[in-house]
Amino acid sequence: MQLRLLCNMMDGLVAVEGGLKSKAGDLFNEAPDRIEDVILLVSAGIACGQPQLGWCCATLAVATAYFRAFGGSLGFG
Q1: Which of 16, 21, 39, 45 has its Cα between 20 and 30 A from that of 30?
Q2: Residues 6-59: pLDDT tens digits?
Q3: Based on C-alpha coordinates, what's the Rg of the chain?
Q4: Closest C-alpha to 68, from 38, 29, 10, 36
């Protein structure tokens, strides 16, 4: 998971610092990350023998990203 976070951070830094960010860039950056979050967290829950915990964590991860994007669309920093 830490390697995924590092790759995501480097991807964002390259886009922003290199001036390659587009309006649709946030969608293409966030959508695969949310899918990956669900797959990893649900799989971890299943591996621990508690799939409901994995689904709960995945739901919270997606909800956090949604609220962050919603706040950004309203102009909050």
Answers
A1: 45
A2: 877 887 777 777 777 777 777 777 888 889 889 999 999 999 999 999 999 999
A3: 14
A4: 29
